[in-house]
Amino acid sequence: MQAIQVYYISLSGNTTSFLKGLDHYFQQEYQKRLKYINVKDLVKDGKSLAFDIKEPYFAFLPSYLEGGNGIDTGDTEILTTPLRQLIAYSKNREYCLGIVGSGNRNFNKQFCLTAYQYARDFGFPVLDEFELKGTETDVKRIAEKIDRRLVEVQV
Fold it and tell me: What is the model's pTM?
């Protein structure tokens, strides 16, 4: 069974919950599985984020920003910077096939803003976004986009 590599960060558990559902869906519908690594756990275990990624991967990222409205003020990333450090290291950005953002729509313009900042800063596309733990509809839509992206780049 083909494995799809995912690097992500989850602080409240919502992104991990979404990825579990996405993995289950991929196994059932695509006969593929996700191999997802929470970079927060790497840091907690004392592992360095200075390592080379040598295979295509996807990134999943919730938005945690410092105050404000996300446009004029408050667009400074907080809490999720370990994922940024990993992607920024060496040539890791070149292997990222795209990012999926998550967040809470109550934060209006800040919803998924961090994913769009990563896309701008690192030069890969935002594939999609979902709110909190996501829905079954989100899982199906995002699985389709990830699979389509894998076909586009012939992985």
Answer: 0.91
